[in-house]
Amino acid sequence: MIRRETEHLVLTSMLPEHEKELFELHNDPLVQKSIYRNVPQTIEHIRKIINMFLAQWQRDGFGFWMVYEKTNHGPIFIGRCGLRDYEDTNNLEFVYVFFERGAGRGLGPEAARFTITHALQNSTKEKVVGVIAHSNERAKQAAKKLGLRYIDDRWHDGRFWQYYEMTREEFFLRAHHQVVR
Least packed by Cβ within 10 Å: which of 40, 46, 64, 166? Predict the structure, then answer.
């Protein structure tokens, strides 16, 4: 397992042992509303996701991280964050999913900056993209904070999403990427 820290977070590479935490995350009310159209997620769905993310780590040396907030009582799981290949392009799709308790306090952008920096430093990918539900105002605000620009609406995974992107050069020109510890 790979473990890294930022100012407020502990991030670890995803492992099969994270199944229970991810099941709870994917069935959180905020996650259900924002991503899954209030359709409960099954343990089989979680296992499929874990297998997909593990394959990416093995293939690329980066992927999705489990995100824990540092507290006085030890790290508390607040979500997952990472990048994956976007369709048949040389781009990476950025995704983060946080419990309601981890949202709205700047922890998502902190995790995003770390994961994007890590992925771009370990690849030759050209762009970071985001596909965001039209109703997900928090995600749109976070994308803009990170420097992603709205391009247009696109069909992806069976429905229309708002498509955002940022080149690797644009990302590294911004002062927000972090040195990992």
Answer: 40
Within 10 Å of residue 7's Cβ, how many Cβ atoms? 9
Picking from 50, 3, 19, 24, the residue whose alpha carbon sits closest to that of residue 102 is 24
For the chain, give the longest Cα–Cα distance. Answer: 44
What span, in angstroms and rounded, lies between the C-alpha atoms of 79 and 31?
Answer: 10
Report d(CA 167, CA 170) in Å as an integer.
5
Q: Each residue of 3-56: pLDDT tens digit?
A: 999 999 999 999 999 999 999 999 988 788 877 777 888 999 999 999 999 999
Residue 130's nearest CA partner among 110, 148, 106, 114 is: 148
Burial label, 19 (beta-carbon count in 10 A; 0-12, 13-18, 19+): middle
Tokens representing residue 85 in the block: 């290949």
Residue 49 · residue 63 · CB < 8 Å: no
Handedness of CA 70, 81, 95, 78 (dihedral sign): negative
- The amino acid that residue 70 corresponds to is K
CB atoms within 10 A of CB 95: 18
The dihedral formed by the CA atoms of 68, 47, 162 and 93, expressed in degrees to the nearest 10: 70
Q: Are 49 and 36 in contact (CB under 8 A)?
A: no
